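Researcher: I'd like a candidate sequence for this fold, 114 residues long. If you have to choose between options at a position, lean toward the conservative one.
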C-alpha cells in the first residue's frame, strides 16, 4: 500500500556553500511540485540547484547552473513535476550570502519498499 503526504522544505541561504534543503526519506519517493526562489536584498543574484544520488556515478546532477534571480524578484524554477528516489538529496547554492530564500513543495509517497 502506498500512502502520500504533502510537505515543504525551506531555506534561507545565508552562506554561499552548497546547502541541503531536502532529502527523500527511505522507502519513499517524492514528487517535487514547485521550487520557488525569492531575492530579498534588492540585488539580483544567481542560484545553482543540484541532485545528489550516492547510488549513481557521477553522484551529482545539475538542475540549474547559475540561474538568475532578479532584484526583489520571485522565480518558479519548475515547469513540470520532478521525481526523486529514496535518499536523493536536493541542494541549493547562492552566489552571494543573505539574498535568497527557497521554498520547495513536495508530495511524498511512502512505499515500504527498499
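Model: Candidate sequence:
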Amino acid at each position: 500500500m502506498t500512502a502520500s503526504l504533502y510537505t515543504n522544505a525551506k531555506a534561507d541561504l545565508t552562506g554561499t556553500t552548497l546547502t541541503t534543503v531536502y532529502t527523500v526519506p527511505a522507502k519513499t519517493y517524492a514528487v517535487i511540485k514547485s521550487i520557488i526562489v525569492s531575492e530579498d536584498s534588492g540585488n539580483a543574484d544567481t542560484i545553482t540547484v543540484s541532485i545528489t544520488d550516492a547510488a549513481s556515478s557521477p553522484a551529482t546532477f545539475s538542475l540549474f547552473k547559475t540561474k538568475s534571480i532578479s532584484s526583489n524578484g520571485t522565480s518558479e524554477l519548475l515547469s513540470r513535476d520532478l521525481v526523486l528516489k529514496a535518499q536523493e538529496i536536493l541542494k541549493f547554492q547562492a552566489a552571494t550570502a543573505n539574498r535568497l530564500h527557497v521554498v520547495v513543495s513536495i508530495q511524498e509517497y511512502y512505499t515500504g519498499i527498499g
